[in-house]
Amino acid sequence: MRLPKPSAARSGKKPAAVVSVLGAVALLASACGGGADAGAQQSAAASPVAGGNLNFAVSVDRGCIDPQQVGNNDAIAIARQTVASLTAQDPKTGEIVPWLAEKFENNADATSFTFTLRTGASYADGTAIDAASVKTNFEAIKALGAKATLGSTYLSDVSGITVKDPQTVVVDFSKPNAQFLQATSTFTLGLLSPASAKLSEADRCAGKFSGSGPFNVKSYTVDKEAVLERRSGYNWPSSTNSNKGEAYLDSVTFKIIPEAGNRTGSLQSGQIDATAAISAADIQLFSGNGFWNETRANPGVVYNLYSNESNPKLKETAVRQAISKAINREEITKTLLTEADQPAKGILSHTTPYFKDYSSLLAHDPDGAKKLLDDAGWNPGADGIREKNGEKLSFKVTYWQSPKEVLELVQQQLKAIGVDLQLKFTTIADVTAAQADKTYDFSYGNLTRSDPDVLRTVFASNTARGGSNLREKLPVDDTLGEQAAALDKDARQKLVDQAQEALIKDAHSIPLYELSTTISASEKVHDLKFEASSRLDFYDAWLSK
What we know:
Blueprint: H1 16-26, H2 29-32, E1 53-58, H3 73-79, E2 87-89, E3 96-98, E4 101-106, E5 112-117, H4 131-144, H5 151-154, E6 158-165, E7 168-173, H6 180-183, H7 194-197, H8 201-205, E8 215-221, E9 225-230, E10 251-256, H9 260-269, E11 274-275, E12 291-297, E13 300-307, H10 312-315, H11 317-326, H12 329-336, H13 366-375, E14 379-380, E15 386-388, E16 391-392, E17 394-399, H14 405-415, E18 420-425, H15 428-437, E19 442-448, H16 454-459, H17 475-485, H18 489-505, E20 510-513, E21 516-522, E22 525-526, E23 529-530, E24 536-537, E25 542-543
Parallel strand pairs: 1-10, 1-11, 17-18, 17-19
Antiparallel strand pairs: 2-3, 4-5, 5-7, 6-7, 8-9, 9-10, 11-21, 12-21, 13-19, 13-20, 14-15, 15-16, 22-25, 23-24
């Protein structure tokens, strides 16, 4: 994570309906391609060594490590290790492959999905992972509502969950849902024991749940550390992992170190073994010299300014378009980020399936921005800030991510065309409240997901993310719905392209840059990897003695 910091059936012939969905993902290898910038990660050590504790630093603690409730990257890094999912997604090809479900299929219009579970897998409390427990998990996620920030959106149109037999569960939707198989590969639909569903939300956040993954929560002290220990007997990985038995590491200790300089010093001194939170300025300190870096762009929606279009000034298309044209995305990445980071080329990052390059629509054009504002009647005032009918062209961006250098640079770029952007740094709770109360002008952030349906999650007018529900319903809403129902890859590509183009042209989306994650680690750390969603995977990781 980088500046700024705070998201197939195994055997037998596949039914045609399965091929239609899986093929649409499997053929996207070029869009899902890596982004690793260092080859020094894997040394020539002969084979993995079991044992040891890996100390890993994260930058922030939100007081929750429940995989079904968390949404920020640091908490996800912890939570992901504690749960297995029905499916996995190959980070190289984007293909959906078996995990807890050894076989899966969908009907012809992707309204019904059948999962056949492998036998022998269990939760940490000893309970068998069966079809009934899948039903319990998905119903518990729906019951969490908005507190399941991601999972509730993936399951929003579920019309029924049926246990056909102990190993077979059917999930039905009220409308076509081509994105669901990818959703079942995510941490947020990872499985917890049925007993965990009965815990209070606070107890689950405190790590008192029993998961299905290769690590258990040993202890969790808010704002200090979370300690995970190896799960005895775990031997049900996905095919995306090279390890087929218990995790190699005895434990992983996630240390909360908020200050960037302290994280750098801790890695240099050996107090920690790895982190994904080194500042951009310090990344090169860990390129060689006993360390390695590996970078991958997070798939999904890139960092954006999200406008509250219930604000009369931001309801003006020309104003939004001018703001987008005034932003110099190349300057952001070259000035503040690293050589591995990229400016936004569209709303989706280049590692997202169905990505298309829309750089031409995001070109820096300050003269064009000024003309749009001139034509719209916004004229420069005595202080250089534009005015119309006695009102300043002034806005406030409410955000919780830090540091703030990117927004400060955007502030300067907008001032050059006569737009005043004020920065309001606050807590994530206050940002959420401001969105709910419609008391903000812009919010700021990204959303990681390795499926283009993330566009619908963020920008459809009936969703709350990014304040996009604060605009009138537009034709693009229908397009976003249609892409979620499209099984044919070419048809879905066309719909995703149409949606992106419409959102960019009218500046409902104002993309800034791609969020990327960089692992920086000691050379004694091996096989600490990225999932397809650029989440961290410690299952294959091991330490040199």
